[in-house]
Write a structure and sequence with these properties.
This protein is of the alpha/beta class. It has 24 helices and 12 strands. The chain has helices spanning 3-10, 12-33, 37-61, 70-84, 87-105, 107-143, 147-196, 220-246, 250-276, 281-299, 315-334, 337-345, 348-391, 400-413, 471-483, 499-506, 519-523, 547-553, 579-588, 606-619, 670-675, 681-688, 700-703, 717-728, and strands at 432-438, 443-449, 452-457, 460-464, 489-493, 511-516, 540-544, 558-563, 589-600, 622-627, 640-646, 677-679. An 8-stranded mixed β-sheet has the order 7-6-5-8-9-11-10-12, with helices on both faces. The protein has a 4-stranded antiparallel β-sheet with strand order 1-2-3-4. Helix 4 runs antiparallel to helix 6 (107-143) and helix 10 crosses helix 13 (348-391). The N and C termini lie far apart (74 Å).
Length: 735
């Protein structure tokens, strides 16, 4: 194998590891500091700032490297990144404990931890990753190949990592195993570079580099900034659109990321050919702006794509095909920009500055999209505006009048429609948007349908008022209160439409703490009469925070804690069904306290349903399963239940709450409550026996095979789960 081919192979692991680390860092941050838009923005900003600083630092240090071989420098940087990439994982628990202590002193100090922790933990790794780009330029010079070729391969490696980490490494190895694998791949690449051997003395990075017959570009740093800015504006916007159409799953995020990166890699690979044809990079970027317009319009209608049941196992592949066909062409042309500029620069100082400006644009694009443009414009108008602004470059050159006409017609044809995109079947019914808010992390809306009002979060009907079909929300609050001897303090994690909090109040809770990570949920409670103005009650305290972070930070104790997070297959929700999470709950429950966990059988594969039950039992050995008798499908199969656990021992036949008066008539009688007990403690233990426990490490619900509900053949997921439950029910069991 010649040196050029070997170089092609050795830059792949670095790209794959870089994207792998970023995915793992986001996971560790959410566990250490809580899920929040601020935490996500800080991780992105810290990563981009570190890479910017690394690129600029390299431009100052490389001229002083003397005769050091660029292969050795690249190997050293990759080794530093591989070793220091573990930093956030190793420091996660100390950071979490420090955050808890700081919050209890003053919440402001917790905010300081949120800012400083990513900088300290991610600094070394991001500096090393950013410094590799100027070194790639030196390798390209020595190999007498364009920088864009190595950049394309490095970006292709990142696309490979975006596919391998969520679809292979995490499901098979868990977080810790994935982390070791990513580091191992990066170290293998570093060792390979180290073994290549000297290829000559390092030339002065400030030299003229390879000659070019083209006129130098005016303001290349500005162009690098614009390409980074628009790339991340589109990535954030299109991900919001596709997440609404395909649900907020790991699959949808990974597919968008893979399609984006592979298109950027193809764009970089095309640079030498486009330069030989004497095309102008500004013109290519203008064409990218034109293609953004129809691509954005097509993605806004992805929610209309229906995949036959027989092809559900191929859903990720079908989604990937759609993503590549729509976003591939514009992103490919957009990906031409930075590699083209790197080829033009030809010197270390130029490579470092261009990459730094591009990375600054990426950071501003990501944060500006999430915090300013999306809330102000919404994803449709934001993508349309980005395309228009970039397409202005298309007007440059010959034939400006006809180019302006083309842009005008295309802009008119692709004007965004004022429609709510989403996978929920409710959006296929006649509906009216009562309220809508585009937040930095999710789009929240309230719609009015013939069936009732629904709370939509990124196109999914997270909650609603549908009579008996949503009666389990009331039961989530009443059941643990009725089973407790003297409940006083209650905590609701994930508020929804407020019906659970209202039930707790009606069962005479002295204090109710309502916690939700989405502030729009609290603002939209006024649109749901069923909660009876819960926030106006002085006994109810609203907290905007990740529920898990609140459990860790607060020192308050509770008698009842209820949990109704987003569906288990959604990205990030594994942390609200894990052993570690239930231990936090147990630590905040007083002796005899009750925990109520939503058990959505219709959204859990049979194996994952058993895992959720087994995990709950691991922390609450005294637990039962209550099945909502009113929430059934057309065949009469129950769809949802409630896992009830006691922090101590208890007699489940006792319902002392029925001896106490309620503020209003109870929708469930004592007889119905007792008869709906699906599995007692012994049978629930038998049901969960042998099932894998859900942990923060294995990410079983979001990354495991069981997340594909299409794998159930011949019956619904709830139907298969109910078969197993009925097989365990004893005919002589009395409650």
């Amino acid at each position: 194998m010649d040196l050029r081919s070997l170089a092609c192979l050795l830059v792949l692991p670095g790209g794959a590891a870089a994207i792998g680390w970023q995915l793992l860092w986001q996971h560790h941050t959410s566990l250490a500091l809580g899920v929040s838009a601020q935490a996500t923005a800080l991780v992105v900003t810290t990563t981009m700032a570190g890479m910017t600083a690394g690129a600029l630092l390299a431009t100052r240090c490389l001229p002083k490297a003397g005769n050091l071989n660029p292969w050795i420098i690249y190997a050293a940087l990759e080794a530093v990144a591989a070793l220091s990439g573990h930093g956030l994982g190793w420091l996660r628990e100390p950071i979490s404990r420090l955050d808890t202590a700081a919050f209890r002193v003053n919440p402001f100090f917790s905010s300081l931890i949120l800012v400083l922790a990513p900088v300290i933990a991610l600094g070394p790794a991001t500096l090393a990753i950013g410094a590799t780009v100027p070194v790639l330029g030196l390798l390209a010079r020595r190999l007498e190949i364009p920088v864009s070729r190595l950049y394309a391969l490095n970006t292709g490696g990142a696309a490979l990592g975006a596919g391998l980490v969520p679809f292979l490494f995490l499901p098979l190895m868990g977080v810790n195993g994935c982390q070791m694998t990513v580091a191992g791949l990066q170290m293998m690449g570093a060792l390979g570079c180290w073994a290549v051997g000297p290829i000559g003395a390092l030339e002065a990075p400030t030299g003229p580099g390879r000659k070019t017959e083209r006129e130098p570009l005016a303001h290349p740093c500005r162009l690098a900034f614009v390409t980074g800015l628009t790339t991340f504006l589109l990535e954030v916007t299109w991900f919001r659109t596709i997440r609404s159409a395909w649900l907020s799953t790991v699959d949808s995020f990974a597919i968008v990321l893979f399609a984006f990166l592979i298109a950027l890699a193809v764009g970089a690979a095309l640079v030498p050919m486009l330069r030989r044809r004497k095309m102008a990079v500004v013109s290519v970027l203008g064409w990218a702006g034109l293609l953004i317009l129809p691509a954005s319009l097509a993605m806004a209608h992805f929610d209309g794509v229906r995949i036959p049941v027989t092809l559900l196992d191929w859903k990720p592949a079908i989604w990937l095909g759609l993503a590549l066909v729509t976003m591939g062409p514009p992103v490919t042309l957009l990906g031409v920009g930075l590699p083209w500029l790197l080829d033009e620069a030809g010197a270390t100082a130029g490579w470092g500055r261009l990459y730094a400006w591009n990375t600054i644009g990426c950071a501003l694009g990501a944060c500006g999209a999430a915090w300013l443009l999306l809330p102000l414009l919404g994803p449709g108008w934001m993508a349309w505006g980005t395309g228009i602004l970039l397409a202005v470059l298309f007007l440059r050159g010959r034939g400006a009048p006809w180019r302006a006409a083309v842009l005008g017609v295309l802009a008119w044809l692709t004007v965004p429609q004022d429609r709510l995109t989403g996978a929920s079947g409710l959006l296929r019914l006649p509906h009216r948007v009562v309220a809508r808010e585009h937040g930095p992390d999710v789009t929240t809306a309230v719609i009015e349908t013939p069936r009732g009002r629904a709370l939509m979060i990124d196109g999914y009907a997270a909650s609603g008022e549908f009579g008996a079909l949503t009666g389990y929300m009331d039961a989530m609050g009443r059941l643990p209160m009725l089973l407790h001897d003297q409940p006083r303090d209650a905590l609701v994690i994930c508020v929804g439409t407020g019906q659970t909090a209202r039930a707790l109040r009606e069962e005479n809770a002295v204090a109710v703490t309502a916690v939700d990570v989405n502030p729009a949920v609290f603002r939209f409670l006024e649109h749901f009469p069923a909660n009876q103005g819960i926030l106006a009650d002085p006994r109810v305290t609203a907290i905007t925070m990740d529920g898990r972070a609140w459990l860790r930070r607060t020192d308050r104790m509770y008698d009842v804690i209820t949990l109704e997070p987003m569906p288990p297959l959604f990205a990030g929700t594994n942390a609200l069904y894990s052993v570690e999470f239930y231990r936090l709950i147990a630590a905040r429950l007083r002796p005899g306290g009750m925990a109520a966990q939503w058990f959505p059988m219709h959204l859990l594969s049979p194996e994952n349903a058993r895992s959720v039950a087994a995990t709950f039992l691991e922390v609450f050995p005294e637990a039962v399963l209550w099945i909502d008798p009113s929430n059934t499908d057309p065949q009469g199969t129950p769809q949802q239940g409630v896992l009830l656990g006691c922090n101590g021992s208890r007699d489940w036949q006792r319902w002392p709450g029925f001896d106490r008066p309620a503020r209003s008539a109870r929708p469930l009688s004592a007889e119905i409550c007792r008869s709906a007990m699906g599995l007692g403690t012994a049978d629930l233990r038998a049901y969960g026996s042998g099932a894998r426990l859900v942990t923060d490490d294995n990410l079983l619900l979001t990354h495991g095979r069981g997340r594909y509900l299409g794998s159930v053949r011949g019956n619904s997921p709830a139907g298969e789960t109910m078969k197993a439950i009925r097989a365990l029910q004893l005919t002589n069991l009395r409650w």
